[in-house]
């Protein structure tokens, strides 16, 4: 486990949205937000198919609000009874995962100024995707590919989905 002080600067507000910019959001993080415990990744087949990537990086947030004029482009898909995945029906961007323990935003949708400091912004990607939280569906690791990514070797590694009641107890 790590101390949060090693993660560098931490944001108080996150902004982001979909590729076509029809859906925009803002997240306000409380001072007590635990960046270590709320960082997560998933290698399940559903997340892979939804994202087109070998693993998805998320960050659990207390809630978020839409800042776009309308959410008419928002759709949700339930690949399983346990959760919904929010996406833009116009451009297809996957924005969040909504499960029993709340929302997890897909980190690829966070604005570049916040994620990696584009145009002189403060880079908070390390705090958001630190790898010290938990990793779901590690039995789906691809030997020599995702099994060798250092970030995926830290934190709590789980076979299957981390139980929601355990997540709530840690928040």
Automatic annotation (TrEMBL):
Q: Which PROSITE patterns match?
A: CENP_V_GFA
The keyword Metal-binding is assigned to this record? yes
Q: Which organism is it from?
A: Colletotrichum kahawae (Coffee berry disease fungus)
Q: Identify the residues that the record assigns to the CENP-V/GFA domain, covering every copy.
A: 14-125
Family, per entry: Belongs to the Gfa family.
Looking at the UniProt entry, the stretches that span the membrane are none
Q: What is this protein called?
A: DUF636 domain protein
Keyword field: Lyase, Metal-binding, Zinc
Residue spans making up a coiled coil are: none
Indicate yes or no for the key word Metal-binding: yes
UniProt cross-references to PANTHER family, sorted A to Z: CENP-V_GFA DOMAIN-CONTAINING PROTEIN-RELATED, GFA DOMAIN-CONTAINING PROTEIN
Q: Which GO terms describe its molecular function?
A: carbon-sulfur lyase activity; metal ion binding
